[in-house]
Amino acid sequence: MHRLIISVVPKNSAEFVTAAANKTGAAGGSVLMGRGTASNSIIQLLGLGDTSKEIVLVIAEQGIVAAVIDAIKNAVADKKHFGVIFSVAVPSFFRSGDINGTGGTSGAVAASACPQTADAVGENPQKTSNTGDDNMADTANTNAYEMINIIVNKGYAEDAMAAARKAGAGGGTILSARGTAKEGDEKFFGMEIVPEKEMLMILVPSDKKEAVLDAVKSLPCLEKAGSGIVFSSEVESFSVLGK
Questions:
Q1: Low pLDDT (below 50) residues in the chain
Q2: Is 169 exposed, middle or buried (0-12, 13-18, 19+ CB in 10 A)?
Q3: d(Cα 31, Cα 8) in Å, to the nearest integer?
């Protein structure tokens, strides 16, 4: 079983994350560019201001996930409002070479269930003090948060974020993207092919997920069939990075 560790950090800061992860045994990582959507200076989940962000994706074996996250947190412990880090389950995974059995395992590494992690870290979103003295208590509830992903045509991510805020979400991160199909190809999940897309990532407490999803689904820009996709994933080991 593997976990995808996701870190959202300021622009030009991804090397702090990848270096710490690599020293702990995680192999490499990928960096995506995005921008935050928080409306004020208070730390918001997945949105630390309307600034450029880097989203670092690192896949690690379950046995070293806690060590990797701790190493990343320690590497940026002296930095203020540096970002957030969390993980999601990866039931299937393979490296290049694994398909032919040359990478140490044959085929994908798979599992049918996602065991709960007993030492996941959570933060009370109501405690957003800028002093760095927030109580980050360990909790056995690994599903305290949900990551909501919204893919829409370019220009509509801000509308989705505004609706999510009204339903209780804090902030989000917007990634620029594009469709991959050409004219005549089948539609992706029924969506019409529009070259430019935006993907909005929002991290919310689990008890607010349904309200946020309902608010987003009622948007006029999503009334037309095929105009967007919304899905969510359970989040594990959530923590704020830095002071």
A1: 40-44, 48-49, 99-142
A2: buried
A3: 10
- CA 232 vs CA 100, 163, 196, 205: distances in Å: 33, 16, 22, 12
Question: How open is the CA angle 65-67-72, to the nearest 5 degrees?
Answer: 95
Which of 189, 190, 197, 187 has the alpha carbon at shortest distance from 156?
197
